[in-house]
Specification:
Layout lengths: L1 E8 L5 H16 L4 E8 L6 E8 L20
Antiparallel strand pairs: 1-3, 2-3
C-alpha cells in the first residue's frame, strides 16, 4: 500500500468553502483506480491547515526506482 500525504494550507477565512468543495472532490478521488481509503483532518493549532491521507494499492510501485516525486501544477 502507498500512503499519499498532502498538507493543505487554505487561505484565511476560506475553510468553510474549502470543506464544501472537498466534499465534492472526495467522490472524485475515491473513484480513481487503486484508491483504497482516505482521511481528511483539520489542524487543531492552525485551523486553516488540513491533512489529507490517501491510501492506494501499489499498482505501479514496482516500475519506479526510486519512487516518483509527485507535484501538482495549474495552468498559467
Amino acid at each position: 500500500m502507498v500512503l499519499e500525504v498532502a498538507i493543505l494550507n487554505v487561505l484565511p477565512n476560506q475553510s468553510a468553502e474549502f470543506e464544501k468543495a472537498f466534499a465534492e472532490a472526495q467522490a472524485i478521488i475515491s473513484a480513481i483506480p487503486g484508491y483504497q481509503r482516505h482521511e481528511f483532518r483539520r489542524c487543531v493549532e492552525t485551523p486553516d491547515r488540513y491533512l489529507l491521507l490517501v491510501r492506494w494499492k501499489e499498482l505501479l510501485r514496482h516500475f519506479y526506482d526510486p519512487f516518483s516525486e509527485v507535484e501538482h501544477y495549474t495552468p498559467l
